[in-house]
Amino acid sequence: MRRRIFLFVLAMAVSGYAAPALAADPTIQEFPVPRLSHPHDVAPARDGGVWYTAQHTGALGWLDPKTGKTRHIPLGPDSAPHGVIVGPEGAPWITDSDLNAIIRVDPKTDKVEVFPLPKGAPNANLNTATFDNNGILWFTGQSGYYGRLNPKSGKVEVFNAPRGRGPYGICTAPDGSVYYASFAGSHIARVDTKTGQATVIEPPTPGQGARRVWADSQNRIWVSEWNSGQVSMYDPKTKKWREWKLPGDYPETYAVYVDNKDIVWLSDFASNAIVRFDPKTETFKVMPLPSGVSRVRQILGRPGEIWLPLSGVDKLAVIRE
Question: Which of 42, 95, 207, 308 is the most exposed place for a label (fewest CB within 10 A)?
Fold first, then answer.
């Protein structure tokens, strides 16, 4: 028997066979950013770095994960950037609440280009943005607005939200549909990208505090519910909802992000943790954050990496699987 085992191992070695590696547990690495930056949102850059909005200093930050070094790009007097995403052309686009404008930064030259909202929408309290499949940027304003910007023409249009105050997180599904969450209105809405009209979709739990939204590969919409401590999912095909309560006594679900494997990632302020949800098994994995009172307000990623802004402790963090 020993001789047979030896011959088998020898044959595998000669053939170049390698045993499959065991899956390692996810790891969390933190990176400090300049003090009082208050990094609100984060977006992986195409060059391997990571963009983040330094909300309290009126700047766009960039982190090099290899060295931990950062640089800040001032966005103008009175700036208070909220969200940041990377556009189809690779540039970071920012929603700036105090400037009441959309901002584009050239990733090569750091040139800042400002697109003010029309005069009819003062103090929109800009929140988050997304690009649809036609290259149009859509954005939300908590004061009761949502809108769009055509990067080619520079034209900005603003629409009144159907139920007033609340538009917060926003996302684009693979099929090109755009959805936003209304935090104050406790609902989500689907935006007709041609007409600009928004249609309200009611979640099952009243007053749940829908805060952010994200779409999976099947065009299902995942919603983080701040007031209820739940994550919910709306399927446009069936028009049906499902809901799951996060672990813990009083969870506060803030951010939601669905990765390229359709795993749902959530931030829970109450437990100071990131929560991983597998829709196939309907199971949660709670990952406590190393720093206390981290306050993760947005989650974005790229294959193998989940990036987090730790607004409460002036750090960024990455989860690697």
Answer: 207
